[in-house]
Design brief:
Length: 104
């Protein structure tokens, strides 16, 4: 069960970091006038290698923190709760940004 939670934390951390870099960092955002779906897909595909590498590093750090907390026998439910709430906020924000992209 602990390995599944660690893997889930890695995946959530990876997705959150990738979305944050795609939609919230001004220098990495696209200035594209397109329908929302096309804008969303193009934002995910632009500079994908850089975003992928940074997201892998952040995902490993988050899952590493979880492993360290397990070894120290501390409760990790708070970490999961905070990451899940942050994930929901980031996904909703990314969808909002992609639907309002043509209103610059």
């Amino acid at each position: 069960m602990k390995k599944i939670i660690t893997i889930a934390l890695f995946v959530l951390g990876f997705i959150e970091t990738y979305l944050i870099m795609s939609f919230y960092i001004p220098s990495l955002r696209l200035k594209l006038i397109a329908p929302p779906l096309e804008f969303f897909l193009k934002s995910l595909a632009s500079t994908w290698l850089f975003k992928f590498i940074i997201s892998i590093i952040v995902g490993l750090i988050i899952s590493g923190i979880h492993v360290l907390l397990i070894k120290k026998k501390k409760d990790t439910k708070g970490l999961m709760l905070v990451l899940a709430i942050f994930f929901i906020i980031v996904v909703i924000g990314a969808l909002y940004v992609s639907t309002t992209a043509n209103r610059f």
